[in-house]
Amino acid sequence: MCHICGREYGSRSLDIHVKQCKKKWEVQESQKPPGDRRPCPSTPKKAVEFNQALSGSKGGAGYAALDTYNQQAFDTYNTKALVPCQNCGRTFLPDSLVKHAKMCKGAGSGSISQMKNNSYGGETAASSSSGGGMMSRRIDA
């Protein structure tokens, strides 16, 4: 998993992707006013363990290292790349946060319970995904 954008990649593609993703982050941040710029999230693991996780070595140790890296990458993405809403505390990509903030009523507003009885006539479960923002999926009972 990329710790910058939150997307999942194969172990051989991830190193290539992270380099490109870091460049994209820096370009996007350079277009913002200096006070609004954020640093690129750093790699969540030490370089040796990161390389071990990416090596794709077979066996429990390689998979365990990869799982550990993916969990830390996910945590880094959620805490460093996403921005929390000042009202409810949920995290979003910066563009999504602007849209969310316009309608957010704060924690305990019941917005999730309102989503459970949506216009589809079915029950949904809302989840905050790694892509930032509120998504819902249909639950078939």
Structure in words:
The chain has 141 residues and is mainly alpha-helical. It folds into two domains: 11-81, no CATH class; 91-139, no CATH class. It is built from five helices and four strands. The strands form two sheets. Strands 1-2 form a two-stranded antiparallel ribbon. Strands 3-4 form a two-stranded antiparallel sheet. A hairpin with a 5-residue loop joins strand 3 (123-128) and strand 4 (134-139). Helix 2 crosses helix 3. It is globular and about 45 Å long.
Q: Roughly how many Å apart are the termini?
A: 32 Å
Instruction: Count all strands and give the number.
Output: 4
Query: Treating each run of at least 4 consecutive H or I residues as one helix, how many helices?
Result: 5
Q: In order across it, which strands form the biggest sheet?
A: 1-2
Helix content: 40-55%
Elements, N to C (H/E): HHHEEHHEE
**Would you tell me the structural class of the helices and strands?**
mainly alpha
Q: Into how many domains do the coordinates divide?
A: 2
Largest sheet: 2 strands, antiparallel
Radius of gyration, in Å, reads 18 Å
Low-confidence stretches: 111-139
Strand content: 5-15%
Approximate shape = globular
How confident is the prediction overall: mean pLDDT?
A: 73
